[in-house]
Amino acid sequence: MKLLIIEDDRKAAHSLQQGLREEGFLVDVAHDGHSGLDHALAGGCDLVILDVGLPGADGWTVLRDLRGGDSHIPVIMLTARDALEDRVKGLSLGADDYVVKPFAFSELTARVRAVLRRKDGPVSHQLSYEGLSVDLARNKVQRDGVDIELTPKELQLLELFMRHKEEVLSRTYIAERVWEMSFDGDSNVVDVSVWRLRGKIDEPFERKFIHTVRGRGYVFR
């Protein structure tokens, strides 16, 4: 597996690169937003570790341009920003995970492996429901023959809903299964992500699949 670190702190980037290489990964490094974005869009990397405070283009811009450029490469935000608003912003823009500095290297490695496992997923596994089809192996989603572009996190959220049709899923359950984190009652990460998913698979169509169950969570039916 090949990783790309986009980090302007050269000492920190070198330390991460060495540590991840010792864990068996191939690792490239970019030290500013523009070169990092170009490298990521060029392909060949399986995951990006992205700092927020970058020269040239900050991490938010890089992430937004990655997703806008039709890239589904998994992204882990690596930053000193611990504010809830920043975590929500990163996840809402399509980040797959968020690690706050300072962190234990073992934690970052575990998160990298977890995100890569989710990315690989079951090979050639397809899901379908009343005109909505999902090909997990190719990250391809269609509804009534119309292609729908989803971020990796949105795809994982849709997969969770489709595997639990007619079941009411609480925000806590969704947060634990999709983000592998405990749900913070003051956080709207789940609500924002569901809203974004609805905008893509429900809003353009008359028939709605995702419904809010007041006080309980969401149901796909």
Question: What does this molecule look like?
Answer:
The chain has eight helices and twelve strands. With 221 residues, the protein is of the alpha/beta class. The chain has two domains: 2-120, Response regulator (Rossmann fold), CATH 3.40.50; 126-220, Arc Repressor Mutant, subunit A (Orthogonal Bundle), CATH 1.10.10.10. A hairpin with a 2-residue loop joins strand 6 and strand 7. The longest helix has 16 residues, at 105-120. It is globular and about 50 Å long.
Question: What sort of overall outline do the alpha carbons produce when their principal axes are compared?
Answer: globular
Mean pLDDT: 87
> Poorly predicted ranges (pLDDT <50, ≥5 residues)?
none
SSE run: EHEHEHEHEHEEEEHEHHEE
At CATH's second level, what is the architecture of the largest domain?
3-Layer(aba) Sandwich
Would you tell me which CATH topology of the largest domain applies?
Rossmann fold
Share of residues in helices: 40-55%
Q: What is the terminal separation in angstroms?
A: 37 Å
Q: What's the CATH first level of the largest domain?
A: Alpha Beta
> C-alpha Rg, in Å?
18 Å
Q: Into which percentage range does the β-strand content fall? A: 15-25%
Broad structural category: alpha/beta
The main sheet orders its strands as 2-1-3-4-5
Major sheet details: 5 strands, parallel
